[in-house]
Amino acid sequence: MHAGIIFLLVIVGSVLFHIFTPWYWTDIASNWQGMDDTITLTFWVGGGVFVAVCLFMVYCVFRYSYKEGRKAEYKPEDKKLEKILTWATTLGVAALLAPGLIIWNQYVNVPKNAIEVDVMAWQWGWQYRLPGEDGKLGTTKVTNINDENPFGINVDDPFGRDDILVQSDFINLENNKPVKILLRSVDVLHNWYVPQFRSKMDAVPGIVTYYWFEPNKVGEYEVLCAEYCGVGHYAMRGGVEVQSTEDYNKWLSEQETFQDLIAKQQKLEFENKKLVKNNNLILNKDIYKEE
Amino acid sequence: MSDPKIEGFELEKGFRGMAKDTGSDQTMFKGVHWGKAMMWIFLLSDTFVFSCFLIAYMKGRASTPVEWPNPSEVFALDAFGVPVPLLLIALMTFVLITSSGTMALAVKYGYERNRKMCGYLILATALGGLTFVGMQAYEWSKLIHEGVRPWENPFGAAQFGSFFFMITGFHGTHVSIGVIFLFIYCYKVFAGHYDEGKRGWFTKMRGDYVEVEILGLYWHFVDLVWVFIFAFFYLW
Amino acid sequence: MSDEYENKSGYQAQSSETMTGTGSGVSPDMDYVRPAENPEQDLYHAHSFIEKWVFCQDAKVIGVQYFLTAVFTGVVGLILSWLMRLQLGFPGLAGFITAEHYYQFVTMHGMIMVVYFLTALFLGGFGNYLIPLMVGARDMVFPYVNMLSFWMFFVAVAVLMASFFVPGGPTGAGWTLYPPQTILEGTPGHGWGILLMLISLSLFVIGFTMGGLNYMITILQARTRGMTLMRMPLTVWGIFTATVLAMLAFPALLVSSIMMTLDKLLGTSFFMPTILKAGEVLEYGGGSPILFQHLFWFFGHPEVYIVALPAFGIVSDLISVHARKNIFGYRMMVWAIVGIGALSFFVWAHHMYVSGMNPWFGFFFASTTLIIAVPTAMKVYNWILTLWRGNIRINTVMLWCLGFIVTFVNGGITGIFLGNVSVDVPLSDTYFVVAHFHMVMGIAPLMVIMGAIYHWFPLVAGKMLDEKLGKWHFWTTFLGAYSIYFPMHYLGFIGVPRRYYEMYDSPYMTSGVGLNEFISTAAFIVGAAQLILVFNIVKTMKTGKKAEKNPWKANSLEWYTSTVPPEHGNFGERLPVVHRWPYDYNVPGAEEDYLPQTAAPSEVAHTEVEKT
Amino acid sequence: MDETNKKEQPSSTHKIGIYLWIWGLLFVLSFFSYLVDWYQFQGMLRWSLILFFMFLKAGLIMAFFMHLYWERYALVNVLLWPMTAIVCFVALMVAEGKYTLFSRLFYFFVGG
Predict the structure, then answer these.
(1) Hey, which chains touch A, using 3+ CB pairs under 8 Å?
(2) Interchain proximity D85–C358, CB inside 8 Å
(3) Searching chain A, which residue's CA lies closest to the CA of residue C325?
(4) Among A256, C230, C310, C375, which one is most buried in terms of CB atoms within 10 A?
């Protein structure tokens, strides 16, 4: 008898836990409300089945626990009942699957006006690249990456010249504007994941993967790596700030482009050379003096 | 083989027979020796091994932007001063099919309890297998000499060498194991172990000519795999 | 040599006899069972201690050997999980758990529990012990190969354990061993550790293939007279289907292990693209990490069912015996097992929805995955319908079964979340996943294992385990485990990613700290509670009640052996002849509330038996 | 008791002719598939020819050398149905391979 009561308490406790839990999902800050809704739907249907099945089990424990001499029913099969249950389950499952597939269809089809953001991951950090005025990102190559070209951009690619480079693990996004995240990794698997945006995808070395979302709440969010990437996995954090259009544009204009970077480096190089020349001159003068 | 006779059980043909066999007691594969059934299931499992290798190869080759070496040129061999594409491979195929044929005949003679024919044919099969392994060793050394390594090759995509050595190596291992067993079985046939039902050294099971068929299944399987490797690796 | 085979007390060759049982007043024709197809199997009887207990060819001893070895690895896995929970619940408390160590614990815990503990325990342990007994065979069909299978497994375990002691320690790549990080610097144990892991896995596969061939052929080709496939206990069906899956899925693991070993040792680039590490380009290029994931999950998903299907089968038998009622919808149960097994080869990439594979695969795999939910749900319905209108003994065994139903339904339903592609996106790689698979393929099968131990202990050891201790064991384990994994789902909702050594002060986790401490505490208690079982076994072996023959009044053949515990050869002189399915409980008109599978039709002509 | 004595030998073995026929056929088919390379057929023609000869050869070996043609359907079906899993795997990996190649050509220059 006590067994039935404890099982009953477990079921009731589970339901109460779900209702009163202080731990539930972090507030959503993107367009993927549909995912949350499907989860809620699955929760209702699945939770209902769970409660029903377990309550029925508890009922059986109460009602049919062992009595000497009681005859159990002898009925090997009940075709009709089995058929009803099969079809009911199939329908239920189909009802859960349909919204899932519809939302997946939205997830893999990126809106035309989405801004591409190249997220580059390595052990253990992030950096970002935005398209410049031409609205297109240049092609890249891992072997091109060096101190002068931290993103490995193809120097001959005209689209790459005006790319905006954000050499920091913190990036800003424009509110209410769809973003296509293009993920790239130079070493191992990573995953650019912001719980509030609900969406994620692995960054796989050797290919470029993508997903999209539309942030719809201004604020700062933490970026987590969601695919195990070695011993520093847990420390591979970043940040994202969703801003209003004005703030975003202001921020954008302060960022340097690939062209700027090259120019800066050329200038640096030039100045280095000049410095050496001057030094030599000074040195020479000194030598003259001594003579 | 042809349908066995089972006391008190009438065998039917086709899918009806399948349903009846499956629904019957004691055995599902009527008249199939335990060892033979085991070999078949093992080969099924091994098929999945080779399939996974070939699928990996296909995926690797399909997704490389670097040019894949042309097997027709890589595996060409000079015959009388003229490069003949895939000459060695054609010879290897020829040898392996020959050995497969002799094995099939060995099984047949085994069941007819023709000890001599069976023994000689197994010996021929073993020698064929040995020739095959030898030719493969030659092919490997030739490619290694030309600079092909598991991690690189002078002709193009590095994966070419990786997959080539891995898949032919794995197949070659199968052939080598088969050759060893062929020699053992050849000895056992000639020594008459299968005629008198002598117990095996390892498993202590009684000898029977069905073991020749079991080994035959393995050997044909090795040939079968080669058919696929030939098509996908050398002709693609 | 031949004297070793002298048939013990001269077993009767089955084929000489065609008739069994002579019913009173009923025509004996109705009991006719056709003669045996298989000749009497010769058995190699042991002559020395070593042959009897070490290099033994008796499937029952091999089963116990498998069982004990698997339990040993399981204990190692349990201790690792304690260490992990110590770090997660109380970070910094145990200073020796560095991030490297933590990831090594995670990896070894996962691999040990899934492959070396659960797979070996269900198939190697229960499979070896029960298959020959339940189908009415003298032994496995190839006892020698069976012995090799165990020793190969033993070597695999030894190699795995050796990796704890090599330089760099065991691999810390996560049990999925995803390249490229698995074999690169930055992952603990990327040198010796991963090599030993791959070697150990390959040995395991080879060893398992030998055992699996035995299980399959024994079930297909060595059943006793009258034992049709549709009269086999569901335990055998579960183990059989799981074995088929293993034979077809382990090749993918073998292949991926071999390829990764080559990547590591020879520098091939099967799974390795161009990689920039610490400013240097490594000598890899052109490979595809996702290919590994496909191969791995082509093994990995069937592997889930390799663990689950035997549990399904065993629990069906336990429920039926202890509810004193026939299993409801036997045929449906069988087809569900077979259907789940077949479908499991078409769903693997639902582990990879966010892996960056071709996004269009999502539609295909979500559909196939959710189709599996239907046969699985049917099994659940049939279990509870078996309880319905039964006469349920609420003993320890039944409690474990009820615990299984609760945890399995819970875990199965969270599976619908994760299988449904777009719902999986926010939840994948979070603690929701961890909670889900622990509930459904950790705790639920464990409940079945425990129930099976209490159920079959009288058969194996000849003594009854203590009921009172058993109930304490059950309630601490069940309530503890449930309170570990049920709340853990909610950590996943918050968005806490899995495989995090530490969350720092991340805003997602500040609210979950208390929860984590609670979960850890529960985990320590549940782990320690297993000592109750150890104590129970020790106590029972010393002072326990001697088990009578067939103490549970069950129908299946393993309880109808010549002696308890069964001797080598299982059934004495004559193999049993089977006339019915093993679930005839409470048949109207029968004197007892059970009818053994061997009861001949003429003996039960006066009852209302429906199903044979 | 005694396996060897009890075991029934197959009542009839096959005529040697059938083996020789298949043997010859295998040589001819191998020669044909070799010719596919010799004449350097390309594109779909090459593929279909390769696959055609391959499956024909594999089928002949399995059916006659491995005696599957004479085996009972129960065994044949058990052996052939699992191949659907392989076929599914192959089909999906073709799609995956193409997707990877597309990604590499589109986003990287000269491969990844």
Answers:
(1) C, D
(2) no
(3) A72
(4) C310
Domain of residue D90, residue span: 82-112
Q: Do A120 and A245 reside in the same domain of the chain?
A: yes
| Residues B133-181 pLDDT 10s | 999 999 999 999 988 888 888 888 888 989 999 999 999 999 999 999 9
Is C499 in Cβ contact with A234 (below 8 Å)? Answer: yes
Domain B34-235 has CATH 1.20.120.80: yes
CA dist., res. D23 & res. B28, Å (int): 31
Q: Do both A153 and A248 map to the same domain?
A: yes
What pLDDT is stored for residue C601 in this prediction?
86
Q: What is the pLDDT of residue A283?
A: 58
The answer to the question of residue C34 being in a domain is no
Q: What is the pTM of this model?
A: 0.93
In a domain, A146, yes or no: yes
Supply the pLDDT for residue A276.
67
Q: Say yes or no: A31 and A170 in one domain.
A: no
Left if phi > 0, otherwise alpha if psi is -120 to 50, otherwise beta: which for C7? beta
CA distance A127 to A138: 16
Contacts of C532 (CB under 8 A, 6+ apart): C469, C472, C473, C476
D84 interfacial to chain B (CB closer than 8 Å) = no
**What ipTM is given for this predicted complex?**
0.92
Chain C contact for B2 (CB, 8 A cutoff): no
**Confidence class for position C573, pLDDT limits 50, 70, 90:** confident
Give Cα A21 distance to the centre of its chain. Answer: 25
Rounded to 5 degrees, what are φ and ψ at A253?
A: -70, -20
Residue D77 inside a domain? The answer is: no
Looking at residue A26, its pLDDT comes to 84
pLDDT at position D14, please?
A: 76
D contacts of A139 (beta carbons < 8 Å): 107-109
Model pLDDT, residue C557:
93
Residues of B with Cβ-Cβ distance to D104 under 8 angstroms: 63, 65
- B199 lies within 8 A of chain C by CB: yes
Give the pLDDT confidence score for residue C130 in this predicted structure. Answer: 95
Interface-testing mutation among D86, D100, D103, D109, with chain C (most C C-beta atoms within 10 A):
D100
pLDDT-based confidence at C523, cuts 50/70/90?
Answer: very high
Alpha-carbon distance C277 to nearest alpha carbon in chain D (angstroms): 15
The number of folded domains in chain A is 2
Question: For residue range C202-259, what is the model confidence (pLDDT) as tens digits?
Answer: 999 999 999 999 999 999 999 999 999 999 999 999 999 999 999 999 999 999 999 9
Query: Residue C83 sits in a domain of what CATH number?
Result: 1.20.210.10
Is C290 in contact with D96 (Cβ distance < 8 A)?
yes
Band of pLDDT at residue B2, cut at 50, 70 and 90:
low
Radius of gyration over every alpha carbon of chain A, rounded to an integer in angstroms:
30
From D16's Cα to the closest Cα of chain C, the distance in A is 30
Domain membership of residue A27 as a residue range: 2-63+78-108
Of D3, D85, D95, the CB nearest to C39: D3
pLDDT at C175: 92
pLDDT of residue C10: 42
Does C27 have pLDDT greater than 70? Answer: no
Q: Percentage of residues in chain C with pLDDT exceeding 90?
A: 71
CB D2 to CB B197 under 8 A?
A: yes
Q: Where are the domains of chain B?
A: 1-31, 34-235
Whether C301 contacts C351, CB under 8 Å: yes
Residues D68 and D87 in one domain: no
Select the residue from D71, D77, D90, D92 to test the C interface by mutation, using most C Cβ atoms within 10 A: D92
For residue A89, give the amino acid letter: T
Nearest C-alpha neighbor of C270 from the set C207, C200, C182: C182
Q: Closest residue of B to D9, CA-based?
A: B111
My answer on whether D30 and D50 are in the same domain is: yes
Confidence of residue C346 (pLDDT cuts 50, 70, 90): very high
